[in-house]
């Protein structure tokens, strides 16, 4: 035990360059897929536990090596569609959903108008900004116009004025 502690201490105080910065830069550059890979790993582990399977059982069902399954479960593996498909079919779970392609014209959206500004005020703002005036004068005129617009303060930050 003492020798192991001494070895760890010597690693900490050695003059050898640490690789923590390289690991951090790698994680920062690949954060998006590493996070998704970790989520897949958690889902696969939960499915293994629910089915009562070992990693070796999963490897046999997927027809891959146990080392490959181990890498997947560590959440450090950049998974291909093929691997994800094998995982889904072996565990009978869904890990990924592909959204169907639709042209923009086919996408239906709904929007509600919160509050409209009277058109006379909009025209007044446009007319005043079209004139060649100093920015200070325009800002002052904009404030005056803004104060004419009726406004009710929302009760909380999630309230929408109607």
How would you describe the shape? flat
Please give the radius of gyration in angstroms: 30 Å
Regarding quaternary structure, what we see is single chain
Unreliable stretches (pLDDT < 50, length at least 5) are 143-149
SS field, number of helical segments: 8
Number of strands: 0
Helix content: 55-70%
Explain this structure.
The protein has 162 residues and is mostly helical. It contains 8 helices and no strands. The longest helix is centred in the first third of the chain and has 21 residues, at 31-51. Mean pLDDT is 76; it is low at 143-149.
Concise overview:
The chain has helices spanning 2-13, 20-29, 31-51, 55-62, 66-74, 81-91, 119-130, 135-148. The protein is mainly alpha-helical and 162 residues long. The longest helix is centred in the N-terminal third of the chain and has 21 residues, at 31-51.
Structural topology:
Layout: H1 2-13, H2 20-29, H3 31-51, H4 55-62, H5 66-74, H6 81-91, H7 119-130, H8 135-148
Helix pairs in contact: 4-5, 7-8
Please name the defining characteristics of this protein:
single chain; 162 residues; mainly alpha; 8 helices; 0% strand
């Amino acid at each position: 035990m003492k020798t192991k502690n001494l070895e760890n201490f010597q690693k900490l105080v050695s003059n050898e360059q640490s690789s923590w910065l390289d690991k951090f830069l790698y994680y920062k550059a690949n954060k998006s897929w590493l996070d998704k890979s970790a989520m897949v790993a958690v889902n696969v582990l939960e499915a293994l536990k629910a089915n009562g399977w070992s990693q070796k059982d999963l490897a046999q069902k997927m027809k891959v090596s146990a080392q490959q399954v181990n890498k997947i479960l560590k959440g450090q593996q950049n998974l291909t569609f093929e691997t994800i498909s094998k995982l889904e079919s072996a565990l009978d779970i869904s890990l990924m959903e592909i959204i169907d392609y639709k042209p923009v014209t086919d996408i239906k959206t709904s929007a509600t108008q919160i509050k409209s500004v009277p058109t006379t005020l909009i025209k007044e703002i446009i007319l005043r900004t079209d004139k060649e005036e100093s920015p200070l004068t325009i800002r002052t005129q904009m404030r005056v116009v803004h104060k004419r617009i009726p406004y009710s303060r929302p009760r909380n930050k999630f309230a929408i004025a109607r």
